[in-house]
Amino acid sequence: MLITKHQNIIDNAVKANHERTFYAQYPEHPKAYGEEAPAKGGQAFKEQLNQPFTRLKQKVMEGMAGEEVSPYTQEPLGITYPVIAVDELVSAGKRAGERWAALSVADRANILTETLEKIKDHFFEIAHATMHTTGQSFMMSFQASGPHANDRALEAIAMGYQQLQHFPEKLNWEKPMGKFSIKLEKSFKAVPKGLGVVIGCSTFPVWNSLPGMYADLVTGNPVIVKPHPKAVLPIAIAVAVIQQVLEENGQDPYTCQLAVDSSDHLITKELCEHPQIALIDYTGGSSFGNYVESLGGRGKTVFTEKAGVNSVILDSVKDIDAVLQNLAFSVSLYSGQMCTAPQNFFIPESGVGTPDGKLGFNEVAAKFRDAITALVNNPKMGAGTLGAIQNEATLQRVKDAAQLGGKILLNGTAVVNEEYQAARTCSPAVIEVSSADHGIFERELFGPVVLLVKTKDTAHSIQLARKMAEQHGAITCGAYTTDETVKDNIATAMNSVFTPVSFNFTGFIWMNQHAAFSDFHVTGGNPAGNASFTNQEFIVKRFVWVGNRTYVD
Amino acid sequence: MLITKHQNIIDNAVKANHERTFYAQYPEHPKAYGEEAPAKGGQAFKEQLNQPFTRLKQKVMEGMAGEEVSPYTQEPLGITYPVIAVDELVSAGKRAGERWAALSVADRANILTETLEKIKDHFFEIAHATMHTTGQSFMMSFQASGPHANDRALEAIAMGYQQLQHFPEKLNWEKPMGKFSIKLEKSFKAVPKGLGVVIGCSTFPVWNSLPGMYADLVTGNPVIVKPHPKAVLPIAIAVAVIQQVLEENGQDPYTCQLAVDSSDHLITKELCEHPQIALIDYTGGSSFGNYVESLGGRGKTVFTEKAGVNSVILDSVKDIDAVLQNLAFSVSLYSGQMCTAPQNFFIPESGVGTPDGKLGFNEVAAKFRDAITALVNNPKMGAGTLGAIQNEATLQRVKDAAQLGGKILLNGTAVVNEEYQAARTCSPAVIEVSSADHGIFERELFGPVVLLVKTKDTAHSIQLARKMAEQHGAITCGAYTTDETVKDNIATAMNSVFTPVSFNFTGFIWMNQHAAFSDFHVTGGNPAGNASFTNQEFIVKRFVWVGNRTYVD
């Protein structure tokens, strides 16, 4: 074994992964990382601006490229990255993979945990990089791309560590045959499937990429990371650290490569279709995701997280204000640009049950609108909760949503960000639609768009939410009810289309959040994606058990 | 919990499955099942001949059908089975599945183990049924369709029992937030994917079907079993027992249904393509198997065992006679109609190393031919080892093989079976081909056809065997070498294309055999099939983890 110093971290992660109670190897509080870390991280980010990114151990083959623009300043970051031809990436990855595959899973898990411990030292730099590529607030950037992403990576390491040790490496098999016995020496090997590609998205460039990367790596597969060309820096920092640690531990740094492309010459399809690519992890829109899934028919193993339309079912509540404040935050957080953000709110035409009787649909809608307005206009909360809009297409989508035919209850408008006057911002638009307006609420309107759908009753709400998840996919579902039978009905209906339900969330927890070591992220069972962070399938499909037998005289 | 009496069997099976040392819940010796069992089983089989099969709990919807013919007597069995329309099967299965899915995995595992304990009482009847549909010898019929199949089913139960308990059913999650904490009640459910279809083959109607059936059932999915129309009875007996036990335990017998069709109206495609079918297990030829795999693109989860071309690499041996006797048995056993039977024997032109120096290619070939002839003509061994040929197409394939262009060293000929004069039999044909004759040895010649391929040297043999497995699939590979370096090279090369290797088998163990609880059957990594009895993937792809969360005030 090469290094064993992280065995304790790995063992704790395996235990946490099973038990699924609260666990975090990497605390989400910035203060946990020392007094000097914030300034050091900010400085490192500033120094990288307008400079080539030279930290990778990959050779520059075809020049440098970079096109990142801060959603906060709307200015280019001016950072360039080495561009390498697909064939070069593939052959270097294949070569590096042989040494990596020969390691035991314990060695790989230890080296990979070491990479996380080293990435930790860059959490603040990665936070700035995430903020100025995705438009997330600084705090969300820190948590999502830092500790939360590292915990998701560790979760994948732990699951791999465990699954690859499901069967013994060697054993003696002896079959009694009466007067004699037959003896065989047997050995079992988890043979890695081959070179992997991880395709990143522009909104969560680290959180959504690390699980696939670490799942590939822990199971012995080399990996090529292909970030969105508008969100490279956050994951480039992580890849550079991984390469450094690989080299320090006698491994080939090309085991984990960064593949940078540009909007006018995207290489994703070329990479995915390369015959040497065995594994693909994808996060992004459904249209390209469906194409990636179709490559499963060409013998590739594919893991996707695509888009879904998330619902909230409002039946009855203990405290309507607490509920609507919670939901106002859910739809405002990062301006609805989370794949877990709710879009469709199914509310019965007779209203929502409260301890004081039914609150009518219009009153609930007005209260919700007011809660959103209050949050958005709160000088201490608004800009920080919303962050910025990653790209113009999302902004346009909010404008277009107003033309869809619903009743506009609240327009999406620019929100002043005191620190970044040029920030691309937009508050949530709230639109009332009837349950007959399928054409409107049956599509994902990614970004700050909230649809309030008036239904006949809660049974109708459940029926519509279920149908949405079954046909268009769903990653989350929120539900509010004080009635145990209704709760069971919602759970049964939504779970039957492989959608998890968060019941009665108020206070400082939101349905958008999926905690590592406890919540599965995406179930893999509906059109929102075919994979799940991190169930057994996410790991075991990346390798093949092969057993050899030798006759013993 | 309904019944718990089999917990000990389940626990032992889980342990055996992990440890992979020799284990059998159902002994393979016929004598283990009591003195009366053989006669009782024979009698039950005889009484069923020329009668409708009325033991199923399914309603006869569209009349009765049956077209089985004994390969031993070449007479129809005269047994008919209820024919039911696909839509009826599907809706009955869906309905039954709801109650079944609501059970705990422990309840399901106990009921399913009870079905195996009851199937055990029919081992001899199933043996006769298998013999007179597949052409296997009585002993192979008994072992393969009886104890070995039951053990494979128990293996699937055990893996399911374990994987579904990987995460807790309920837990309290508490996240410390400094002065307060956030509390959630969480629950995790392994939601079954839906109705399954298991498509059987004509040569191993029970052994190859039980794993998929029990994998579906233990994970909470109802299943429809679609046997080959020429080999219905063996699995019909098992399904009838399963339905009986289901009913005795308060379950809907339609949870496991038999779907019988006829050669002039096959329903397999209609069944597979039905939108309500979520899972498909298939054993059979590659062409239909590739079609079944293509249904993966339509959202179905597919498990296949197709055809492969299995190789033997002969490098060096301690005792050439012991080796060739072992291999002669391997190619003769059930007349090469096992998916694990070797077809291509790669032998260097310079011959095979022995303690007395190299034995030339021609001498090895002659010795092999003689070993086969001696076995075939041995009155105590020949007919019993070969069994009968399941269908005319296989017989024709042996005849055609003689026309392929190789050098005929031994013709396949009819072999006298003293007990069944009318038996359809054929001894192995042995054909020498050059390594340039790709067109001949690159296809699967299912049945008693042995190709001896003359190679430049062992490195060349390895290269060809590896390429065969990579391009055409392989389920097994035999190798003989006394050189540790060559052994490593063979293991590395074949394992890299996800093919297991059996080294230096002599005596009473053959490369064709894959033992439950120890050997994986098919790796799932090469074109011979995408699934493996029974790795984690064989189980975890049949359900989806879904978690619900409830906020605790």
Automatic annotation (TrEMBL), chains A, B:
GO terms for biological process: L-proline catabolic process to L-glutamate. Keywords: NAD, Oxidoreductase. The keyword NAD applies. GO terms for cellular component: cytoplasmic side of plasma membrane. Signal peptide: none annotated. Pfam families: Aldedh. This is Oxidoreductase. It comes from Chitinophaga cymbidii.
